[in-house]
Amino acid sequence: MSKSPIDKANTPEEFTNLKVTKPAKNSGGFKALKSAVNHASKYLKPSDAIKISTKINQKGGFDCPGCAWPDPDDERSSLGEYCENGMKAMSEEMQKTTIGFKFFADHSVEELAKLSDFEIGKSGRLSEPVFLAEGATHYQPISWESAFKKVGKHLNALNDPDEAVFYTSGRTTNEAAFLYQLFVREFGTANLPDCSNMCHEASGSALSETLGIGKGSVTLDDLYKAELVMVIGQNPGTNHPRMLTALEKCKRNGGKIIAINPLPEAGLIKFTNPQNPVKLLTGGTRLADIFVPITINGDVALIKALLLKLLEKEELEGNVFDKDFINEHTHSYDAFISDLKQYDFSDCLALTGIDTPTFDAVFDLVLNKKKIIICWAMGLTQHENAVDNIRELVNLLLLKGSIGKEGAGTCPVRGHSNVQGDRTVGIWEAAPQAFLDKIENKYGFKPTTKHGYSVIDAIKAMNEKKAKVFFGLGGNFISAVPDTNYSAEGLANCNLTVHVSTKLNRSHLVTGKEALILPCLGRAEKDYQKTGVQLQSVENSMGVVSSTKGILEPCSDKLLSEVAVVCNIAHATLKERSKIDWLQYKDDYNLVRDDIQEVVDGFQDYNKRIKKPSGFYLPNGARERTFKTKTGKANFSLNKLPEWKLKDSELIMMTIRSHDQFNTTIYGLNDRYRGVFNERRIIFMNREDMKARNLEEHQIVNLTSEFNGKVRKANNFKVVGYDIPKNCCATYFPETNVLVPIDSYAHTAKTPASKSIIITVEAG
Ligand SMILES: Nc1nc2c(c(=O)[nH]1)N[C@H]1C(S)=C(S)[C@@H](COP(=O)(O)OP(=O)(O)OC[C@H]3O[C@@H](n4cnc5c(=O)[nH]c(N)nc54)[C@H](O)[C@@H]3O)O[C@H]1N2
Ligand SMILES: Nc1nc2c(c(=O)[nH]1)N[C@H]1C(S)=C(S)[C@@H](COP(=O)(O)OP(=O)(O)OC[C@H]3O[C@@H](n4cnc5c(=O)[nH]c(N)nc54)[C@H](O)[C@@H]3O)O[C@H]1N2
Ligand code: SF4
Ligand SMILES: [Mo]
């Protein structure tokens, strides 16, 4: 019997031989170097490995596609300005094996779907376009020309442009992303869901409302100069390793660090800089001065408890708040204070799961430091009250006047290497009117003002058969989104699914009636066009736009750049009805940048400034204390405590990344820092919770989530007893995405609540 879309969408349930050791207390060091070298030597050609390691993140080289952590503005390490994570990303992207028509002739879609995500990813780089005909079992080769026509034909056959969905993942460069959204808007829709919807959307939403800009306010230099850095809901040792170098520098300058996380992540505790030969020999730096083992989703309660104590002290002594800043720059202070007074300190503290000495130590630092930076990531954004989480952090910073001055401010740490840039240049289903007006002025067509689908809306629309064509520029939609089974049914309803990708992934196997895989150049490859090898640009987590230029020969001569794919599809779809000469852009990317500078604020002299070795900073009002909010000031906000309650049998589960994965790309089966080897189907549980359920180490269990009466199941996981707060547990995504309810998402931002899923665990 043929597999259903649901079967194909789920990872196989087989175990791979779990081994567990004690979690590491130190990150980086020789082991990180060794792991980077291992990955490079296993999957890269030796000559490519050398070129990559000398050019990655160097001025004038190419931007690491690993994450969005910024490169230093000043000197860069001659030992290589990259980390283990970056080398793994490159080893994956530039793997020496390629797959073309023969691979697809030999393996049916069903057969490929039986592989694990690790095996799918290691199949090799996609090397030519392929097509899956209706009812066919195998992908077959197709020419680029026919592929473009097919996409155009399907799009033009829709009753309404809103029946198409155009997804973007955050590796896409500014140039490709700008053209893509321009095409989508000229086609007639704003259905531009992107990975950001599942990532920092809640940060954007909270920061825009309170500070007038959806991005962080700090620079790397601020981090070096902060007196106190709070790292909340983030695991930089794995996900942003070079952030640890910046934290190390901050400590060297006398700064203090508080880490707030349900898990004692190795990178937060101690770090040995692999780029520092002396440190490699003498041991690492202790990073966190205080580790706060917070209950999952206890963050608003913790910040409120701090705010209450600060207020108490202010009312007694009067020199705790930055009153000049509050008077001059903020709005709704009085309403905020009277709301805060309704809360009880002990109730708040109880919700955090933290003991009094730990709280007091945190309070002492917050009270006495004037330059505070708060860094955060998915541990705060993937909850139903994610926007409240972030707004409450802003309240704390505003009271302390810790915004828009040296060494202080907001630092949402972005994920994908250009996810921030994509949004800046228009990948936004809810783009502001001013941006749409500029498009209209420049190109002479009127973009729809109706908001398009975000990720959650797009999945629902496909399920309800309101959306019939799915187009993905990068990413791995089915493995990244919540509620895997529901989402798979949505994709299967489509007439056509198209993916522009570098490597095979599970989304290529959960298809609409017809499907296309369009292979594109990776970041490290030279992008040859009529006017020579093209340069592109990206924006990092701190708003610096810099250039990136490939250095390796493309792995196949049948690859196109993302820019070329977008231009050709726009040309094939819009034909004479377009007001834009689409094909000109692919010959010369300077033309794209000329357009961006006219349409997007902050890009004047783009072509000139992008050639500066360390790029340029985009304007950032919050950095200058110019708050472009509705009130013209920085806004205090009123945030509630979360309302969920667990029944005795229930646990709250967060889905996290292992050390050997990049989102849905599984580099390997180990989670070295957490002491878990050769297995991903595990659940980290508090040992008392295990006892209460009579569960033994490595016992096989099944997980169930029930939401609004609907039951979802994920079977076959092994229990690992871990240092995690009581009633909390953790699993890896994408294996447990099947448990994330489509209707559980952040209010207003619609980020899936994949860090607070209420589940029960039963012996399997
Ligand atoms: N190697 C590697 N690098 C990556 C990625 C990757 O997958 N692999 N992904 C990239 C992307 S797109 C992103 S968005 C980032 C993600 O970077 P992170 O946000 O660091 O990644 P997560 O694994 O989702 O982990 C979040 C952390 O939040 C904690 N946490 C969970 N719930 C809560 C909570 O309620 N409160 C608090 N205080 N903490 C909580 C978890 O214990 C975990 O340590 O990394 C980017 N970089
Ligand atoms: N349960 C749960 N779900 C989550 C999360 C979580 O913490 N928990 N995190 C969420 C987050 S933060 C994010 S950002 C999303 C990630 O969602 P996505 O961005 O959709 O997923 P990725 O795994 O980053 O995409 C990897 C694929 O991108 C393609 N690719 C790689 N490089 C390129 C390139 O240069 N160009 C093109 N065209 N394609 C390329 C490859 O084919 C690869 O298979 O997942 C979200 N899903
Ligand atoms: S910190 Fe991120 S951007 Fe920097 S080298 Fe590592 S993976 Fe690449
Ligand atoms: Mo992300």
UniProtKB/TrEMBL annotation:
Annotated region described as Disordered, given as residue ranges: 1-26
Alphabetical keyword list: 4Fe-4S, Iron, Iron-sulfur, Metal-binding, Molybdenum, Oxidoreductase
Keyword 4Fe-4S recorded: yes
UniProt xrefs under Gene3D superfamilies: 3.40.50.740, Dimethylsulfoxide Reductase, domain 2
Ranges of residues in domain Molybdopterin dinucleotide-binding: 651-756
Protein name, as recorded: CbbBc protein
Species of origin: Flavivirga eckloniae
Homology family: Belongs to the prokaryotic molybdopterin-containing oxidoreductase family.
Keyword flag Iron-sulfur: yes
